């Protein structure tokens, strides 16, 4: 007498929409055709969304057996004819809080900490996890350093703390241009306990590119594919690649390479920064280009670039249809951005929260590097927190001129006392 199809993620958050199918759509129809199921967003006039297709192989037996649930529709529908990821065009269906999988690994939400060169060590990753990040990626690590067992590389940069494993996977990002070196390094990273490996094919820094690594691999796609394949075979872990749209403005070589990496090297996902390497972080990311990649790539796309505030990040997520977003510079000194995106808090942090968080960072830096090295290492961190406190450039400079963490604490305390007195 008719069927009802339960679709997860209806117009109400967490709700289930039941779409009744009329009784005349019977076994004969199901046996002979692929039936498109469409359901509108009731609050959007004329909004009709392709929810999925019922394959023609569902015949009379499946129709008759209610327990078989013949018309179950996947949460992320896949077009039958080309198996590409399909973006559903109204926002209630997808949320940054939705779980997903990457290479078989469960990820609790769609907000990821990006690889931050010289910054993304274990305690920065742990900080992101404390505020809700579903996956974290390490700073960029040299495959040659790992391959040759450099002590600092292997003891500090490959360090993974048990606490950062909670709430989602940990990835180590490698860079390098030699496939066999990458194979060896990837095996070592797997032994260190990484859940997956990310490869850098987007770094625009000249000292990286001149070796043939980073964004230079966009211009050498055969080598890029060989490097990615070697990482996957050496580690036996899922491999992702982070790249840019091209070397120069207007280039689309990064899109072509993304397809080859997925199709020929078995890459599990692409982290995509839709700016050229030449412009670094200038200008606006090309979100239409990112959307094109999402719609044509047979793998998840994680969007990067200009992820600075909840409104623009959410808009980019919805516009592109990407699988997840990756926070980089926007999260520096601002771990609260993860929590705000995930609905864990609405308000900006208070001054007390910012100072307490900086203190947490200081303590972890000492744990990681020791008092002497931590004092110098944190000089690049201080401006992020001082700026969030509304402090002056002079205060930032004073903090960066300190040699020890105790000196930095004293400068910050004196500034706070002067502000309070004023």
Notable traits:
single chain, 422 residues, alpha/beta, eight-stranded parallel barrel, two-stranded antiparallel sheet, 17 helices, 39% helix, 18% strand, globular, disordered N terminus
Which oligomeric state applies? Answer: single chain
Identify the overall geometry: globular
**Helical content (DSSP H or I, runs of 4+):** 25-40%
Q: Structural class, from secondary structure content?
A: alpha/beta
User: Strand order across the biggest sheet?
Assistant: 7-8-9-10-11-12-13-14
Query: What is the alpha-carbon Rg in Å?
Result: 24 Å
Quick one: how many beta strands? 14
Query: Biggest sheet, open or closed, and with what strands and sense?
Result: 8 strands, parallel, barrel
Beginning-to-end CA distance, first to last residue? 77 Å
Detail the poorly predicted runs.
1-92
Task: Please sum up the structure shown.
The chain has 422 residues and is of the alpha/beta class. It has helices at 27-32, 60-64, 122-130, 143-147, 151-157, 179-192, 206-209, 221-235, 253-265, 287-296, 310-320, 336-341, 351-369, 371-377, 382-388, 393-400, 405-421; strands at residues 3-8, 16-21, 35-40, 48-54, 100-102, 105-107, 111-113, 135-142, 170-175, 196-201, 239-246, 269-276, 301-304, 324-327.
Give your account of this protein's structure:
This protein is of the alpha/beta class. Helices cover 39% and strands 18% of the residues. It contains 17 helices and 14 strands. An 8-stranded parallel barrel has the order 7-8-9-10-11-12-13-14, surrounded by 6 helices. It has a two-stranded antiparallel sheet with strand order 1-2. A two-stranded antiparallel sheet has the order 3-4. A hairpin with a 2-residue loop joins β5 and β6. α6 (179-192) packs parallel to α8, α15 (382-388) packs antiparallel against α16 and α16 runs antiparallel to α17. The protein starts with a strand and ends with a helix. The relative contact order is 0.09. The model is unreliable at 1-92 (pLDDT under 50).
């Amino acid at each position: 007498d008719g069927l009802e199809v339960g679709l997860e993620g209806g117009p109400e958050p967490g709700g289930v929409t039941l779409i009744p199918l009329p009784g005349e759509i019977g076994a004969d129809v199901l046996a002979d055709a692929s039936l498109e199921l469409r359901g509108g967003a009731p609050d959007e006039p004329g909004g009709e969304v392709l929810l999925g297709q019922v394959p023609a192989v569902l015949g009379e037996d499946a129709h008759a057996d209610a327990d078989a649930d013949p018309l179950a529709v996947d949460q992320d529908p896949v077009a039958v004819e080309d198996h590409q990821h399909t973006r559903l065009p109204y926002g209630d269906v997808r949320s940054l809080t939705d779980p997903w999988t990457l290479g078989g690994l469960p990820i609790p939400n769609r907000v990821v900490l990006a690889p931050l060169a010289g910054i993304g060590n274990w305690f920065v990753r742990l900080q992101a996890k404390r505020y809700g990040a579903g996956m974290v990626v390490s700073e960029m690590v040299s495959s040659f350093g790992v391959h040759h067992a450099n002590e600092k590389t292997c003891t500090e940069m490959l360090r993974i703390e048990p606490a950062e494993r909670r709430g989602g996977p940990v990835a180590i990002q490698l860079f390098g241009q030699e496939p066999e070196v990458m194979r060896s390094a990837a095996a070592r990273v797997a032994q260190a306990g990484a859940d997956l490996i990310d490869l850098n094919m987007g770094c625009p820094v000249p000292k990286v590119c001149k070796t043939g690594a980073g964004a230079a691999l966009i211009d050498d796609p055969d080598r890029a594919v060989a490097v990615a394949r070697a990482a996957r075979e050496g580690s036996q872990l899922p491999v992702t690649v982070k790249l840019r749209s091209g070397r120069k403005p207007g280039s689309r070589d990064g899109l072509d390479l993304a397809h080859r990496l997925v199709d020929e090297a078995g890459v599990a996902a692409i982290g995509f920064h839709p700016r050229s390497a030449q412009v670094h972080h200038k200008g606006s990311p090309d979100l239409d280009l990112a959307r094109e990649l999402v719609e044509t790539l047979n793998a998840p796309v994680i969007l990067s670039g200009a992820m600075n505030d909840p409104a623009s990040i959410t808009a980019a997520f919805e516009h592109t249809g990407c699988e997840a977003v990756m926070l980089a510079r926007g999260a520096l000194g601002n771990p609260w951005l993860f929590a705000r995106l995930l609905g864990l808090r609405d308000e900006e942090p208070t001054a007390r929260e910012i100072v307490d968080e900086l203190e947490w960072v200081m303590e972890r830096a000492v744990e990681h590097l020791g008092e002497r090295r931590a004092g110098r290492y944190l000089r690049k961190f201080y401006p992020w927190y001082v700026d969030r406190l509304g402090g002056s450039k002079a205060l930032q400079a004073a903090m960066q001129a300190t040699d020890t963490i105790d000196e930095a604490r004293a400068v910050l305390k004196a500034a706070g006392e002067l502000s309070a007195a004023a």
